[in-house]
Amino acid sequence: MLHLTPEEKEKGIIAASSGNHGIATLIKNINPLTEVIGVQPVASPVWYEFLKAGKLIEMKVKETICGGLSGNVEKGSITFPIIQKYVRKSFW
């Protein structure tokens, strides 16, 4: 990502995990025009539902083979405001 030209930085696709809100911040600081997209397991569509609702909501999530991509975001954490600010959409 750091070595791409501005024209090549149209989209940044990241795993929708609590740690990757920092990656979204980095991408947007390198190129504010880059569209950041989160991807996540069907069993835990937390970012997708947050963005759809426009707020942090408690969800029932299922287990996945990748524990880092499953689960809710803690209330009061910095994760959700960063997701709202930098991530345009999320898919599952």
UniProtKB/TrEMBL annotation:
<dbReference type="GO" id="GO:0003941">
    <property type="term" value="F:L-serine ammonia-lyase activity"/>
</dbReference>
<dbReference type="Pfam" id="PF00291">
    <property type="entry name" value="PALP"/>
</dbReference>
<dbReference type="GO" id="GO:0009097">
    <property type="term" value="P:isoleucine biosynthetic process"/>
</dbReference>
<dbReference type="InterPro" id="IPR036052">
    <property type="entry name" value="TrpB-like_PALP_sf"/>
</dbReference>
<keyword id="KW-0456">Lyase</keyword>
<dbReference type="GO" id="GO:0004794">
    <property type="term" value="F:threonine deaminase activity"/>
</dbReference>
<keyword id="KW-0663">Pyridoxal phosphate</keyword>
<protein>
    <recommendedName>
        <fullName>Tryptophan synthase beta chain-like PALP domain-containing protein</fullName>
    </recommendedName>
</protein>
<dbReference type="GO" id="GO:0006567">
    <property type="term" value="P:L-threonine catabolic process"/>
</dbReference>
<dbReference type="InterPro" id="IPR001926">
    <property type="entry name" value="TrpB-like_PALP"/>
</dbReference>
<dbReference type="InterPro" id="IPR050147">
    <property type="entry name" value="Ser/Thr_Dehydratase"/>
</dbReference>
<dbReference type="GO" id="GO:0006565">
    <property type="term" value="P:L-serine catabolic process"/>
</dbReference>
<feature type="domain" description="Tryptophan synthase beta chain-like PALP">
    <location>
        <begin position="22"/>
        <end position="88"/>
    </location>
</feature>
